[in-house]
Design brief:
By secondary structure, this protein is an alpha+beta fold. Helix content is about 35%, strand content about 15%. It has a 5-stranded antiparallel β-sheet with strand order 5-2-4-3-7. The protein is globular and about 45 Å long.
């Protein structure tokens, strides 16, 4: 994950803008105010899985250490936003329930799955000021059609991250780029 791009390329920015109802308006906004976050609809170009920061870091660690990696990822207001394949928001909750996600010895955080009908605040293409106060990219989109994990990949990552959290209870995990 340390080698992942932290700012979107022009083609990655165009991909993000394509999610909007009026992509040209998003592109114009970002050309004039590249630091500004904007809200984009989920469900057509991407879904988003929002996780609490610590669990989200464990999830990213599982996806990047054991493969296959992740699609774009942003951090915003104490949560990690994992961009996923369209349809993931509808399918992932059922898969997590099947895995008895809410049970077990350690509490597992609630994930917010944003899909059709939802919007997400997306960081601008240029980092803004102090990173702790603004949305920022951890893994920025850098191609015109980035790979997006589906519900099966995210389920696998969540299970591994949950197990890692249980093994590491009481320890202070260190994540690069936090």
């Amino acid at each position: 994950m340390n080698d992942a791009p932290r700012t979107p390329t022009p083609s990655g920015t165009a991909w993000l803008a394509s999610a909007g109802t009026f992509p040209g308006s998003v592109t114009t906004l970002w050309s004039r105010h590249p630091h500004r976050a904007t809200e984009l609809p989920c469900g057509r170009v991407f879904d988003v899985v929002s996780a609490p920061a610590l669990f989200g870091r464990r999830l990213l660690e599982a996806l990047w250490t054991c493969g296959p990696g992740s699609g774009p990822v942003a951090a915003h207001r104490g949560r990690l936003l994992l961009f996923a394949a369209p349809g993931t928001a509808a399918r992932l909750p059922a898969l997590l329930h099947w895995q008895e996600w809410s049970g077990g010895a350690a509490p597992v955080p609630a994930l917010l799955c944003l899909g059709t009908g939802d919007v997400v605040s997306v960081p601008g293409p240029v980092p803004a000021g102090r990173e702790s106060e603004h949305a920022r990219w951890l893994v920025a989109p850098h191609t015109p059609s980035p790979w997006l994990p589906g519900p099966d990949v995210l389920l696998w990552g969540c299970v591994r991250a949950s197990r890692a959290g249980r093994r590491g209870a009481g320890r202070n995990p260190v994540f690069a780029g936090a």
